Each structure stands twice: as structure tokens, then as C-alpha cells.
């Protein structure tokens, strides 16, 4: 459970001006665009199409990598072992631990990847490709009920976390190392592949959010309510909740064990939102 949150401070402690500055979708995207050159620098950029024209297309680098020709069970065993080990960070990860858990020789690992760094960079691309391709393949923004779309997006994230626990654990740790909770550009701790992957993931998620939050059915809202300001409130609520729950000390098992509570909490918040702002 991780997202491109803008701050980890409870919203009740923030002034209206601080909330606007820290949580504005436009400002958030602008801050990420300041670093977008990192993505091309590390060759992590993806292909994105809008919901009208398609979804997310994995990179040729992932599709053509020779490890993809391995038998699926063995390939997944190697990649999952590597992602679990790299959750401790690139410098702390041991290739000895990876081959031991995967049940392969060290020579075979380096036959496929050459170096520890190349293995790590492939895992970043592979993890991002796998999640985003499924994400865009399953998300439906054609129906334009804002609250329903956000709820479906929440359920989809839960389902993908359970389907790909090693990948989500890996990406969550990458994101939190590169871009820990807190406002402003100083959140970006380094300019390596971790940062590029985190920014790319946020950029793509921003595109999904833009489609949901900009192209919704405003007629569902009360006539005395500005629907776009109401949408901002919903955005702040979701990101504030995620900021409160996300921690670098948590594993994907911690998130999975609490998902029912997350859904119950969000369901109650959504019910309040609907009662306040919908007809």
C-alpha cells in the first residue's frame, strides 16, 4: 500500500494554506516534473496511452531480456528471491543470499545479468512493467462516478498486492528509500535508479488520477457544491490516509494483514464524503 503522498502530517494540524500547497495535484505533479529527466537518464520511461487508446506497454528491454525465456517457475523463483533481498537496499543486498534462496549457482545468476547493478536495474524495470501493465489492463474509467472509480482503484491495488507480494514489497521499499514522506522537492534523497523508478511510478499513477479526477460526472454532486473542490478534498483524504499508514519499517505482509481495516476505514470515509457532497 503506497502512493505518491504529499505529506505525513495529520490534516487537522495543517492550515488551509499548507494543505493547498502540500496536497495540490498540480503542485505535486510539478515537483515530480522537476526530476523527470532522471527517468530518461536511467532508461526507465514507459509507454502510456489514455483509457480511450489502450494501457501501459512494457519496455522492449523487459520483453527481450534472455531471462524471460526461462521456464516460468524458475524465472519467478530467481526474480522473487532477488527482489526480497533488495528490499534491504542495494548496498545491503547479497548475491550469495539471492542464489541460495533461488536454488541456483552464482555463475547462472551472473550469466543472465552480468553484474549486481544490472540485476537491480532490471528488477526495477520488470517490477514497474508488471504492475503497471496489469493496472492499466484492469482499471476502468469509462464509467464516470468519481467515488466509484476511486473505490475500484483502491480494490485493484489490494488485489495486485496479494497477487504480486514480492513486487509490491520491492517497489514500496524503493519508493520509500528514494522519496520518503514529507513535502517539497527535498523528499528526493538521491538521483540514482531508485529515484528514477519512484518518479516514473508516480508519473504514471498521476496520469491515472488525472483521468479519474478530471473527467468525472459532476451532475452527481449537490448543486450547492463545487464538484472540483469536492474532488480535491477526496484526493487529500486518500493521500493523507496513505501517508499515515505507510512506513519504511513495514513489509508487504504488514500491509496485507491490515487490508481489511484499510478498506473498512476508507469505506467509512467514502460514505461520509458521499453523504456530504452527493445528491
Question: Layout of helices and strands, plus pairs?
Answer:
Blueprint: H1 16-23, H2 25-33, H3 37-41, E1 47-48, E2 56-57, H4 60-64, H5 72-86, H6 95-102, H7 106-113, H8 116-138, H9 146-163, H10 165-178, H11 193-214, H12 227-245, H13 252-257, H14 259-277
Antiparallel strand pairs: 1-2
Helix pairs in contact: 2-11, 5-6, 5-10, 8-10, 8-11, 9-10, 9-14, 10-11, 12-14
How would you describe this structure to a colleague?
With 279 residues, this protein is an all-alpha fold. The longest helix is centred in the middle third of the chain and has 23 residues, at 116-138. Strands 1-2 form a two-stranded antiparallel ribbon. It is built from 14 helices and two strands. The protein has a domain at 11-45 and 129-277. Mean pLDDT is 74; it is low at 1-56 and 182-189. The chain has helices at residues 16-23, 25-33, 37-41, 60-64, 72-86, 95-102, 106-113, 116-138, 146-163, 165-178, 193-214, 227-245, 252-257, 259-277, and strands spanning 47-48, 56-57. Helix 10 crosses helix 11. Helices cover 64% and strands 1% of the residues. Strand 1 and strand 2 (56-57) form a beta hairpin.
Amino acid at each position: 500500500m503506497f502512493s505518491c503522498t504529499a505529506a505525513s502530517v495529520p490534516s487537522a494540524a495543517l492550515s488551509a494554506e499548507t494543505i493547498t500547497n502540500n496536497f495540490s495535484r498540480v503542485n505535486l505533479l510539478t515537483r515530480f516534473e522537476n526530476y523527470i529527466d532522471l527517468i530518461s537518464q536511467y532508461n526507465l520511461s514507459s509507454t502510456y496511452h489514455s483509457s480511450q487508446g489502450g494501457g501501459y506497454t512494457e519496455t522492449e528491454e523487459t520483453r527481450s531480456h534472455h531471462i524471460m525465456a526461462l521456464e516460468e517457475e524458475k524465472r519467478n523463483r530467481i526474480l522473487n528471491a532477488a527482489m526480497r533481498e533488495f528490499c534491504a537496499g542495494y548496498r545491503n543486498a547479497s548475491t550469495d543470499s539471492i542464489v541460495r534462496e533461488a536454488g541456483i549457482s552464482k555463475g547462472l545468476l551472473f550469466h543472465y545479468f552480468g553484474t549486481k547493478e544490472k540485476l537491480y536495474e532490471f528488477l526495477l524495470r520488470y517490477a514497474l512493467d508488471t504492475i503497471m501493465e496489469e493496472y492499466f489492463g484492469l482499471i476502468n474509467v469509462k464509467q464516470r462516478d468519481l467515488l466509484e472509480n476511486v473505490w475500484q482503484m483502491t480494490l485493484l491495488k489490494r488485489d495486485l498486492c496479494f497477487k504480486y507480494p514480492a513486487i509490491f514489497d520491492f517497489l514500496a521499499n524503493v519508493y520509500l528509500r528514494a522519496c520518503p514522506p514529507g513535502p517539497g522537492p527535498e523528499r528526493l534523497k538521491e538521483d540514482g535508479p531508485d529515484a528514477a523508478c519512484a518518479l516514473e511510478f508516480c508519473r504514471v499513477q498521476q496520469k491515472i488520477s488525472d483521468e479519474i479526477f478530471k473527467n468525472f460526472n459532476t451532475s452527481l454532486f449537490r448543486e450547492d457544491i463545487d464538484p472540483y473542490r469536492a474532488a480535491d478534498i477526496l484526493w487529500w483524504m486518500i493521500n493523507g490516509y496513505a501517508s499515515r499508514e505507510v512506513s519504511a519499517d513495514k513489509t508487504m505482509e504488514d500491509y496485507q494483514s491490515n487490508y481489511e481495516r484499510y478498506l473498512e476505514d476508507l469505506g467509512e470515509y467514502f460514505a461520509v464524503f458521499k453523504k456530504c457532497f452527493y445528491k
